Amino acid sequence: MTYTMPSDKCPYEINWEWIEWPHGNFHSFIGGDMVTMFPNKAANDIIFFFFHCHVNKIFVDWRLTRQTRSQRENDYPADLADCENSGHFRNATIRLKNIDGLKNDYTDNMYEYVDKPNCTATTDCGSRFLFCDRSNDAPRCLSKVRPGGNCKGFPNADICYNSTCVNDVCVVLSTKAATITATSTVKMTEKPSTTTPKITEVPTTKAASLTEKPTPTTPKVTDKPSSTVKPTEKQTTVTSRVTEKPTSTVRVTEVPTTQPTRLTEKSITTTPK
């Protein structure tokens, strides 16, 4: 921790790499409520909480690797009015005391942080939002650049998110859109090819059944004597199952025929006039 509001009389020189300063630069970069200090509106921006979770992680990692358990709770900059606002003094209160924020209770009982993403000369960061910067001696994971952003200085890195670095700008190429269009076309042509056989199969089958029948029927001769058979007319209606309406009518007419009288075995006795 260091002094963030030093005056000319403060005996400590500013080190711009102290975490308080990059923290402030991030507020300025976001702008809006994040940079409004009087009145303080930074917490109105939802990103404020995500951002400070990350700032706190950096601080916790430093404490766990550089300080003893006792130092973590007790080391606090001296109260110097020439170097900081009195609201930052050790025992100044914001309901809690500032120094209460150094308690080990937080990481003992409330939360812990996983290791930050890392990469090597042969492994990536394991996230689609990060890329491995191998331009320095020690590879490190950095955020990818959004489409339209500046990707200059990383010629061999996958620096652009869902885009490609073209002339130092992340550009979205149209290859993906073309692939989607081609796929849609194939799907549209598949359906007619599978349903067409079903339409032609039905009429073919029914046509065969229509030609098998009808045939003229011969009237049955009765055992009883008769001179003639009364002409009758039958009407057969064949309905197509495809259209569900009568499509053709076959009319069969029986031609009247005269049948000889069948003789019985007994003799016929006639009486003379």
TrEMBL record:
Keywords, alphabetical: Copper, Metal-binding
Chain ranges of the Tyrosinase copper-binding domain: 17-63
Annotated Low complexity bias: 194-228
Signal peptide range in chain numbering: none
Biased composition (Polar residues): 234-273
Region (Disordered): 191-273
Coiled coil regions in record: none
Pfam families referenced in this protein's UniProt entry, alphabetically: Tyrosinase (PF00264)
GO MF: metal ion binding; oxidoreductase activity
Designated name of the protein: Tyrosinase copper-binding domain-containing protein
Species name: Meloidogyne enterolobii (Root-knot nematode worm)
